[in-house]
Every structure is written in structure tokens, then in C-alpha cells.
Amino acid sequence: MKKRETTEEEILVEVKSPEDVKMRLVLEPKVFRIVKNFTEEYAGNVENGDVFIVQQHKKIRNAGVFCAEDTQIIQLKKTFVFRSEVKKVGVDRFTGGNRFAIYRKNGGIPNSFRDNVHEAMSRGPEYNFNRFNCIEFVLDLLDVDLKPTVKDCMKIGLGSKPRGFKVVKKFSDDDGNAKLGDLFIIECVISGAGYHHAGVCCQEPGQEIIHFTPQTLSQNLTSALYPGSFGFSAAVTSLSSPCPGLVSKISVKGISRCKFAIYRKKSGIPASFQRRVEEAMHQNLKYQLFDYNCVHFALELLYGELEDTERNVEDLMKLLFDGF
Predict the structure, then answer these.
(1) How far apart are CA 18 and CA 262, in angstroms?
(2) Which segments constitute the LRAT domain (predicted)?
(3) What is the C-alpha separation between 270 and 112, in angstroms, rounded?
């Protein structure tokens, strides 16, 4: 799983050095074009789905998306140290007298934009400003499917909504019909750290999930939900050094007593998904809690090998927004 050939459907190429990153930022076409720069006067020439970027002291302070139906901007806002909320505010309140730019998505906004906005307004707690920044929030609303990185795995493992996925079932919902390639994020009942287990639906008839755990686990689901109950010694071992891993399949019915969410990749699953599943079942992989765990494994089935790079607000702006 960790070493494979790059396929045509994989979005971003492998990066081997900081110089490669800089060159890619220059050569790749941008997703957003500029409508108003930071120094121009605002004339009200704004369309549904336009992105507002607020700048303060030459740094990005906030980002949000204009909703024409109520002429307000939807944003992810930090309320307290560990709390966030999704809310709508007017243009003047959003910009707060600071300089701002407006960008427009090339090719237009997705047909699902209105539904994405309503979903975000009702699902605020799954967005956490400490793990899901304002630009990532914008990309999620506008269906920009940017390949996740290794750093994103920790955010998802801690319960943040994976970017580029639509919600099929929230943690609080009773039912949700999974399809091939859907991502399952399962709460670990005993875990005080709040980490989650991950798997991918690999068979619709019978509803099976493929997942990855330390081989030290027994074969029942309860012990498979790391770090819920596979044991302190196994946890310590996987923290300090890789341990033998186990790729297996479980029934969706087996997690019926657990709280779990189901997410569906908005751009669809790759043509190579079933091949990756078959290959994974015959591979001997090493499990390590932070470097290669169940979330890394699940995302590689859907995207291929992940990049080990950091993407903060500034990086995302340079990568996707023209003229930044």
C-alpha cells in the first residue's frame, strides 16, 4: 500500500523536495481566479459562490463563501480555544474594515453548493478550527477535491470531516446506506484520546468493510477499534516502532453498536479501487500509530500514496488561488 505506481486518476504528483513543491506551485493551473484584489474598491460585483479572503497585517485573517440567496458570507469561526461554529454574516461584518480580495472558481460552482452550505450549517461540530482551517472549509463547500496528505490523517482520526467527501451518515444518525468506496469513521468507545478507527466499504452486497489494525489484536471488532481496547502494550509498541499489521474485512453489522459516520468521495472512487483492495489483502504491512495507521490505509485505497507535506492557509492559497 505504501509503495505503488502513480495512476492517471491521482491528482497530485509525488513530491521529493522543497524545490519540487515550489516548482509545482508555479506550473499547476489555479482553481480560483481573482475578481477583486486587496487594494481595489469593492463595487458589489459579487456572484454566488465567490470566495472572500480577508487580509490583516499582510496575513490571511479569514476566508468565507458568498451565498447569494441571503447575500451573506458563510464562514468557519473560532469561538473559544477548543470550539468553533459555522455561521453566516454580512459582507461588512465579515471584512471588519480590513482589506479583502474576491476570487471566483474556474468552471463555476458545483450544483451541490446550496446543499453543501445547508449541510455545513447543520453539522458545525464536525468542523474544528484547530484541525480544519478556513481555506479547507471553503474548498469543502466548493467541492475542490485536493488529494489529502499524511498530515490530514491525524485530523480525520481525531474526528474532523474529511475534505472532499459528502456526509452519508453523521455520528448521531441511526441509519445510513453505504456504497462501494464509502469511508467509515468509527468512534473508539474506551479511548480517552478521542481517536477514531477507519475503514472503507469494499462490497455492497453483504456490506463489508476493509480495514487495517495491529496484528496483536484479536479478530473481533471490539478489540479492532484502536485505541479502544487492543491493549496498552500494543499501543506503546506501535508508538515507538512499527509492529506487524493485519488487513482484514468485517461486516457493517458488526459495528451496529458503535457510533460511526459514513462519508462518500464527491469525485467518485478511482477505477483502480477494487485492484487496490485485492492487493492490500495480500500485503504484509507494518502498523505504526502516527506514521501509518488505519486512516492512512483507508485513504490510500481511495487516493493512492499520500504526500508527507504540510498545507497551511498560506500554502493552500499559493497552490490554488491565482495571483497570490
Answers:
(1) 35
(2) 180-306
(3) 21
